[in-house]
Design brief:
This protein is mostly beta strands and 113 residues long. It is built from no helices and 11 strands. The chain is globular, with a radius of gyration of 13 Å.
């Protein structure tokens, strides 16, 4: 199995920056790709950014140019710059491994205007 633990959330002012981390443990060599999702109150969970184990990345249009996804060994990062109030939500780490998907517990990011 793969376990995921996120950290780095908190309260930040609009225009500020924040870096989220996701540490994977367990069967990390079976991971094919990892991703960040977020869920705002009353909205569906949406994909923010993803990265494959060979480093191919994809970023949602809504955060392109502001957010950067990266990975170092068993830790995935989401660097968030120029944050907006609409970036507020719970950010979840996801890992696809074999035929399964694992999720972290989520970390709250609140952007104040």
């Amino acid at each position: 199995q793969v376990q995921l633990v996120e950290s780095g959330g908190g309260l930040v002012q609009a225009g500020g920056s924040r870096r989220l981390s996701c540490v994977a443990s367990g069967s990390i060599f079976s991971i094919r790709a990892m991703a960040w999702y977020r869920q705002a109150p009353g909205k569906q969970r949406e994909l923010v950014a993803s990265i494959t184990m060979i480093g191919r990345t994809n970023v949602a249009d809504s955060v392109k140019g502001r957010f950067t996804i990266s990975r170092d060994k068993n830790t995935m990062y989401l660097q968030m710059n120029s944050l907006k109030p609409e970036d507020t939500g719970v950010y979840y780490c996801n890992a696809d491994w074999r035929t399964f998907a694992s999720w972290g517990q989520g970390t709250q990011v609140t952007v104040s205007s």
